[in-house]
Amino acid sequence: MSQLVITQQRDTTFEIILNRPEKRNAINAEMFRQFDAAVTQANRTPGLRAVLISGAGESFSAGIDVSTLLGLADSHGPHWQQRMRAITDEFQGVLNRLERLELPTIALLHGHCLGLAMELALACDLRLAAEGTLLGLPETLLGIIPDVGGTTRLTRLVGPARAKELIFTGRRIDAAQAERWGIVNGVVALGGQAAGDGLAAAGEALAAEIAAAAPLAVGMAKRVIDGLADIDRGLMLEGWAQSQLFGTQDFLEGAQAFMMRRRAEWKSL
User: Fold this and answer.
1) Phi and psi of 45, rounded to 5°?
2) What is the pLDDT of residue 54?
3) Catalytic option among 15, 22, 102, 119
4) How far apart are CA 263 and CA 265, in angstroms?
5) Distance between CA 5 and CA 223 in Å, rounded?
6) Residue 119 annotated to the active site
7) Which residues make Cβ contacts (< 8 Å) with residue 31, sequence separation at least 6?
8) Could you say which of 9, 46, 151, 160 has the lowest number of CB atoms within 10 Å?
9) Strands 134-136, 172-174: pairing kind
10) Any alpha helices (H) in 170-248, and if so which ranges?
11) β-pairing verdict for 172-174 and 126-130
12) What is residue 1's predicted lDDT score, i.e. its pLDDT?
């Protein structure tokens, strides 16, 4: 089995690296399973103070591998559209486990961070982006919505108006705009160095700064802050909405248009 997710420990920092660079780290089912296992490994490793999540190659991740969506019939049976609530729960569960780590999590973004990849980044506590990184939730261009926490967590982070603007349009924004909106905590200027090198240094510096604080206090602060939002209700609504949308002609048209690189012709109007 190929190693689609690499893990390594540096002192008190645990690194999770998406490792499908030839596909811009597009997330397929096996990669997501390996990512979930890496989160579990981090949770069970003693002495850690932070988790850094990055992507190998030219991009953090281009998002879900669309062939994974089109292959749901193979993995979940011919009536998969009637089981979308359960399927969405499985996907949400992975990022819920990431979010509920008591350890601080830092996403290091470069190149592209789109769709499911951005939902993954939003489930982290902090996000650093290399200059020029493109971020977005393009699901509405496929006839669906961000349903793995993206709608809920983006709204919690930037408020309803900004979340609606980004999700309604499916627009991509660059790292500078993402910082102005509060989506990323900082933009890393590369100054001629490789994105991975500059981000790694910035991520390690932030992790070291967090490690100077009391670990129990940091973990408790995370729980209190995260507990202020009704994430569970938002995720339930995402799952309900997506279970309706996956059965529409719009989703089939959106997926086909994406694969064929053409403009979708929506039929539901």
Assistant:
1) -90, 120
2) 97
3) 119
4) 7
5) 27
6) yes
7) 4, 5, 18, 20, 25
8) 46
9) antiparallel
10) 175-181, 195-211, 215-226, 231-245
11) unpaired
12) 56
| Average pLDDT in the chain | 92
Q: Could you say which of 139, 179, 204, 238 is catalytic?
A: 139
Q: Which amino acid is at 251?
A: F
Length of the chain: 269
How far is it, in rounded angstroms, from Cα 87 to Cα 269? 27
From 61, 97, 106, select the one nearest 218 (Cα to Cα).
106
Could you say which DSSP state residue 247 is in?
T
- Token pair in block for residue 31: 């990669």
Q: Which two tokens stand for residue 225?
A: 């802050």
Strand-pairing partners, residue 114, are 136
Residue-wise pLDDT for 243-269, tens only, equals 899 889 998 898 888 888 899 999 876
Residue 15 bridge partners (DSSP): 8, 52
Q: How confident is the model at residue 147 (pLDDT cuts 50, 70, 90)?
A: very high
